[in-house]
Structures are given as C-alpha cells and as structure tokens.
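Milestone 3.1: sequence recovery, worked example.
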C-alpha cells in the first residue's frame, strides 16, 4: 500500500472516535513492519490512550517489531492526561514516521516532529493533510477561532418549505434519515432549538434510533416561555438542559 492508502486507513480508524474523544482531536494510526500494516490504533475516548500509543501497544502485544508509524496528526510532545506520544514512539524503535498533518495546537505544532527528527527518526509530513485536518475539525476550529463546530440540520420540502403558512408541519423525513439525525445527535455535545420548535414539535432531542449518549438540550427562549410539560423539560432522561 502507498502512503495515501495507508493514511486513508488511518483516517477510517480516526473516525471511530467521533463523539467520544472531544475536546481532543480524532486521530488514527497504523504500525508497519516489513512494509506491511501490522497493528492499528485510534484515540477511543477522552483521557484514554492516544492513537499512536494504542497502535504501538498492539504491536508490542503481537510481538511485532515496528519500523514505520503512520498517523493522521503529529504525535503530541507534552504531558496531559496521558504521557507524550513522542516518548512512546522513541521507545518503540520506529525508524520512520509518516504524519498527515502538523498538530494545530500551538503547544505541539512542529515540536513533536522535531523531537523525533533529532532522535534520528525519518519524518514525512503533509500526507492527505487537508483530510487529516478536517478529521480534527472541531478541535482545529476551537484552537484557531475559539468557536464551536456547528452542524445544521433541518427537514425541508422540495419547494423550500419547512412548515405550512399556519405553522403546522408533518413528517417528511424517511426512517433512514431520521436515524442519521439521531447519529448526529450522538456525536455532538449539545443540540440547540428555538422556543418555536419546542412549542410546535415538542421534541425530546434525545438519541433513540441509534446507540449513543444524549447531548445537552439548549433552547433559545429569552422570555422564559417554555411550558414545563414539554418533553425537553419533562423527560426523565438525565442530561444538561440550558435555556438562553
């Protein structure tokens, strides 16, 4: 497999952390031995092992001698909830690191790669860089602009309408797309609606059609007019509820 194909596999692994690793970036990694992918890893949950450490640990358990590490984002070089990934790479005996993108975090940007190069490890960066940065989109946007990553979702008819002139509406979204909407809910920190949506549709804003935790429910209601019998208030399911 060429570098791009290997990086695409690492991106597939990174996607497994969606909804679990935030506010950390989603990262995937492969360990090569003899030029072939021999172990895989990804950042699976916030505070857990990073992708590089997970892949290298799998290689160790299999008794594999790693020669190349492929990772979507530059290995971190500072302590946080886990040790620096650069230390795990240096201990592993890896001779070459193929990196998708330099870490956008100013604390790490370029530092991890320099540490590896100074230790004699061959470093290649910028492989599918845009895709790798996009995989870390929420993390990157917060670092660069201190703004959250937003996803817009609405149901609209072919003529551009979301409700009748009187404000009434009915289901126009087929079951597979409703499941997709619930999957999106399971991957975000919060879902925001206006008071009009609460009054018209009485949504619960919970995850039901797929597996996953419920996001916080946020209602834009500056006049505090939300009735207490609305599902978003009365639901017994525990999760944060915020009224703005």
């Amino acid at each position: 497999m060429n570098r791009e194909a290997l990086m695409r596999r690492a991106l597939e692994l990174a996607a497994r952390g969606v909804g679990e690793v935030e506010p950390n970036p989603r990262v995937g990694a492969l360990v090569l031995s003899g030029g072939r992918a021999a172990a895989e890893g990804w950042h699976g949950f916030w505070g857990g092992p990073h992708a590089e450490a997970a892949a290298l640990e799998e290689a160790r358990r299999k008794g594999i001698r790693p020669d190349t590490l492929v990772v979507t984002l530059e290995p971190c070089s500072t302590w946080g909830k886990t040790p620096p990934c650069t230390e795990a790479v240096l201990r592993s005996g890896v001779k070459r690191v193929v990196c998708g993108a330099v870490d956008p975090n100013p604390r790490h940007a370029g530092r991890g790669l320099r540490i590896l190069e100074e230790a004699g490890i061959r470093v290649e960066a910028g492989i599918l860089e845009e895709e790798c940065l996009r995989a870390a989109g929420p993390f990157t946007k917060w670092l660069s602009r201190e703004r959250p990553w937003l996803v817009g979702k609405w149901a609209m008819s072919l003529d551009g309408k979301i409700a009748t002139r009187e404000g009434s509406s009915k289901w126009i979204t087929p079951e597979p797309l409703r499941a997709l909407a619930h999957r999106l809910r399971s991957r975000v920190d919060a879902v925001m609606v206006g008071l009009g949506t609460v009054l018209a549709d009485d949504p619960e804003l919970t995850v039901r059609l797929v597996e996953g935790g419920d996001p916080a429910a946020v209602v834009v209601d500056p006049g505090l007019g939300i009735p207490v019998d609305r599902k978003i208030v009365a639901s017994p399911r525990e999760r944060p509820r915020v009224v703005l």
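Residues 3-145 form a domain with the Cytidine Deaminase; domain 2 fold (CATH 3.40.140.10). The first strand starts at residue 28 and ends at 33.
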